[in-house]
Amino acid sequence: MCDGEPEQAYIKVELEAEENVEGSDSDLIAERKQMRFPVDSHPHWLTAFVLGLQQYLVMFSGTFSISVILAPSLCIDSNIAAKGTLLSTMFTMCGICTMIQIFFGSRLPIIQSGSFIFFPVAAGILSKTPCAESYNVIDENGQNVTQSWDPNWHHRMTELQGNLMLASLVQILLGSMGLVGLLLKVVGPITIAVMIALIGCNLAGTAEYMASTNWRISLLMIVLVTIFSEYLKRVPIPLPTISYSRSSGVKCGIAWPRLFATLSVITSLVLVWILCGILTATDVLEEGDPGRVKDISEDLKVAKWIYFPYPGQFGTPRVSVGGFVGFLAAILAGAIESIGDYFACAKLSGAPPPPKYALNRGMLMEGVGCFLTGLCGPGLGVTSYSENIGAIGLTKVGSRRVIFCSALIMLLMGMIGKIGVLFASIPQPVIGGMYFVMFGIVLAVGISNLRFIDLTSSRNIFIIGVSMYFGIIIPNWAYKVMDDPIKGTAMETGNEEFDQLVRVLLTSGMIVGAMIACFLDNTIPGTPKERGMTNYSAESKQCSDQELRDKIYREPLMEWAAGKLPILRNLPFVPSI
User: Fold this and answer.
1) What does 301-319 look like in DSSP terms, one character per residue?
2) Helix axes 321-348, 509-523, angle to 10 degrees
3) Is there a contact between 86 and 378 (Cβ–Cβ < 8 Å)?
4) Would you give the DSSP letter of residue 288?
5) What pLDDT does 23 receive?
């Protein structure tokens, strides 16, 4: 017998919900009762896979944007096969890092994905060697030909890899030595707000460049994303469902999930992509128009069906002082943001607040994830993905098994090389329209961190205004000076490493603004409440139900090792008892 369920907010293919609600804290009990699947529940594998697919779709658009944004700086914007390699590598590494985090890290249902926080640093490192208009190469027939992308782009990637790996060792050190609390005492919500907001501001040029290739297509993309994500987000869409329980057996029905709430970006992207394909086939878009869908038949033939990134696939990683310092700043910013994500995820997934050893272990494994990502070469590090935490709050599904299934889907999509090439063929103006929305959200997320501070304080307003303005003005000035053949030479010291350090620091608005904000916030007198440190602190009350907390946060392998070697209990990422 079929029946309708109009209020479902997620795709329902439920086989048997396990309501494992424990705990003596009244607030925690209430939160867990509201969960469809709490963090420690075990939904049927088919249910977990479908819900994991939903989480994958939530992270897809952001991860896709982060993957292809490096292409112009790597001088491979016209090389679809190379961009496909970046996409495949990023999704595969996101899947691996997510598994590491949920099993050995914080053990919370947090997806690990690439972050825009690393891009300004990467762009600054690569800017020392600008891309040429064309490159002379010898083709397979021995003839000299020109092409628009750099045949030695692997060499450019290796510098990002080496510096990311070196900087991630600092994050590993923070987690393994229990220094997370010390970091939180120095970097507060003002610094984080300025840093993240400036990422959105500094990426405006990239969005403008991509969108301006065909404003009509880009504006259509922006309009569709706006309509789907904001105006239609509460509109339910009927979908057939099958459910099973031991008491009533198999039942068919109709679910009414609000798909636009989570699939707005990818839905808009696919629709505009299809439209571009139609306009290309009918020659409405003239030859040479960036909005045309390129013929990728040859790229698909060359692309492998199964592709798995491996260490050193782009060459031997290289390091530089400027690159290391830049990535270190991004790593520390991502670490602070992740700590906030841990507490938010715990609350939304029906878990007690994470203890210190779980925070340290999460930070440790996030550093390991960044190291592996640098080793295999997407060029940008990974961190906790806040959007997926919001999806947990929406769907009331916070099971680790669901996130594990999502990680499996990331691995599958990343390992099929032809899928990466297919998505890499999306026209520039379509991506430009998506960048407008995504970068605007990044800016807004940074501003939202100001909710922790006292915005009526003249002290705080001064710090925010000065640091933001410096973060916008200094990079613009630095690029103009360094590109000037006379003034740029005057700034050179003769020491290549020092010159690159100055270039990376001055051309990254995120670093400039964050350094000024952090210095002023820690030197200008202000109360902890005024600075927002009391609200933003990682310190939290402990759950009175020790058994539930141990069940969620204790990692079995480390517990076994600590049982064999009790001295390991002294490590800050292992429970003391």
Assistant:
1) HHS-SB----TTTT-S---
2) 70
3) yes
4) T
5) 38
Pairing of strands 3-5, 239-245: unpaired
Distance of CA 187 to the CA centre of its chain: 21
* Secondary structure class of 252 (helix, strand, coil): strand
Of the candidates 90, 91, 110, 89, which has an alpha carbon nearest to the alpha carbon of residue 99?
Answer: 110
- Element at 344 (helix H, strand E): helix 321-348
What the block records as the tokens of 186 is 């120095």
Residue 17 · residue 397 · CB < 8 Å: no
User: Tokens 């033939």 belong to which residue?
Assistant: 301
Residues 569, 577: Cα–Cα separation, whole Å:
7
Helix (H) / strand (E) containing 345: helix 321-348
- Phi, psi angle pair for 374, to nearest 5°: -65, -35
SS in 3 state form for 177-196? Answer: CCCHHHHHHHCCHHHHHHHH
Q: Beta strands 144-147 and 135-138: pairing type? A: antiparallel
Give me the phi and psi of 295, to 5 degrees please. -75, 115
The 10s digit of each residue's pLDDT in 324-362 is: 988 988 888 788 778 878 877 887 788 888 888 888 999
Say whether pLDDT at 536 is over 70: no
Residue 457 in tokens: 């304080």
Both tokens of 178, joined, read 């229990």
- DSSP class per residue in 5-39: ETT--S----S--------S-HHHHHHHHH-SB-T
Can you name the residues that pair with 3 across neighbouring β-strands? 253
Which parts of 127-263 are beta strand (E)? 135-138, 144-147, 239-245, 249-255
Closest residue by Cα to residue 238 from 262, 209, 258:
258
The DSSP bridge partners found for residue 242 are 252
Gap between the Cα atoms of 209 and 123, Å rounded: 15
What are the DSSP calls for 68-137, one per residue? HTTTTTTT-TT-HHHHHHHHHHHHHHHHHHHHHHHHHSS-SS--EEE-GGGHHHHHHHHTTSPPPS-EEE
Interior angle at CA 178, CA 175 and CA 183, nearest 5: 85
- pLDDT single digits (tens) 171-209: 999 899 988 767 777 878 898 888 888 878 887 887 888
Please give the structure tokens belonging to residue 180.
């997370």
pLDDT in tens, 362-419: 999 999 999 999 999 788 899 888 777 777 876 678 899 999 999 999 998 888 878 8
Chain centroid to Cα 106, Å, comes to: 17
Cα–Cα distance measured from residue 160 to residue 224, given in angstroms and rounded to the nearest whole number: 35
231: which DSSP letter?
A: I
469: helix, coil or strand? helix
| pTM score above 0.85 | no
- 254: three-class secondary structure by DSSP: strand
Region of 146 (left: φ > 0; alpha: ψ -120 to 50; beta: rest) is beta
CA distance 279 to 214: 13
Burial class (CB in 10 A: 0-12, 13-18, 19+), 301: exposed
Residues pairing with 136 in the sheet: 146
Pair of tokens at residue 107: 């053990």
Cα–Cα distance for residue pair 566/461, rounded to 1 Å: 50
Are residues 258 and 419 in contact, defined by beta-carbon separation less than 8 angstroms? no
Within 8 A by CB and 6+ apart from 466, the residues are: 516, 520
